[in-house]
From TrEMBL:
The keyword tRNA processing applies. GO terms for cellular component: nucleolar ribonuclease P complex. This is Uncharacterized protein. Pfam families: RNase_P_p30. It is found in: Nucleus. InterPro entries: Pol/histidinol_Pase-like, RNase_P_p30. It comes from Trichocladium antarcticum. Belongs to the eukaryotic/archaeal RNase P protein component 3 family. The keyword Transcription regulation does not apply.
Length: 214
């Protein structure tokens, strides 16, 4: 069972609030976080290729799952080194560095038979691609019928799913290389001491079904 920190992002998120939230996550000990852009409804055919609207605030990260972790690790240490130098040479306090930030898209799948979700285009534009099926047919499609297996299959557990999860279908998705994520209800935290206005984001639990006993 794995735990990560997902931070909801939308085009209306102010840049200052986003940076403050990321610095707060870093102060809590998170070295890697994901900015999650949830996309629902019809998928337009343009632009082509798809552009990623999430701002790139840290060094680019290799898409998940990456074959090599040396480049992101070395890149993520550069801001920390620069910050340390600035702190020792200037008396003014410097803000904490930003964590390594992945840019993620979560596509809400309703009817794969009639909608082209442009999965290859989204996979190229974002670091992490997750599918959130909204029906039994959408769940089976996400697990079995996509050309390339998605990195994550996200289940919204904040409310009843409305369909049953078949064990064989889920295990077939795991064998293809996908992981399952259980999304809990988002909890709003209190302001940090010092009045920076940062809000705690909900933790999302990724469950590797291969490790769950049948």
């Amino acid at each position: 069972m794995l735990y990560d920190l997902n931070i909801a992002w939308s085009p209306g998120t102010p840049a200052a609030d986003l940076e403050r939230t990321l610095r707060f996550a870093k102060s809590l000990g998170y070295d890697v976080v994901a900015l999650n852009h949830i996309i629902s409804g019809s998928i337009p055919t343009q632009p082509s290729p798809i552009t990623n609207p999430i701002p790139q605030l840290t060094f680019p990260h290799s898409p998940y799952p990456g074959r090599s972790s040396s480049s992101p690790s070395s890149s993520s240490t550069k801001p920390a080194t620069t910050t340390t130098t600035a702190t020792t040479t200037t008396p003014a306090p410097t803000p904490p560095p930003l964590p390594t930030t992945l840019r993620r898209a979560t596509l809400v799948i309703t009817d794969p038979a009639t909608t082209n979700y442009r999965l290859p285009d989204h996979a190229r534009a974002y670091d992490v691609l997750a599918l959130r099926p909204a029906s039994d047919k959408a769940f089976a499609w996400a697990c079995l019928a996509t050309t390339d297996p998605p990195a994550l299959i996200s289940l919204d557990l904040a409310a009843p799913l409305g369909y049953h999860i078949h064990h064989r279908t889920a295990m077939a998705a795991v064998q293809r290389g996908s992981r399952f994520e259980g999304k809990g209800q988002q909890q709003q935290g209190q302001k940090r001491k010092g009045g920076d206005g940062g809000k705690k984001q909900a933790k999302k639990m990724r469950v590797d079904v291969a490790q769950v006993k049948a």
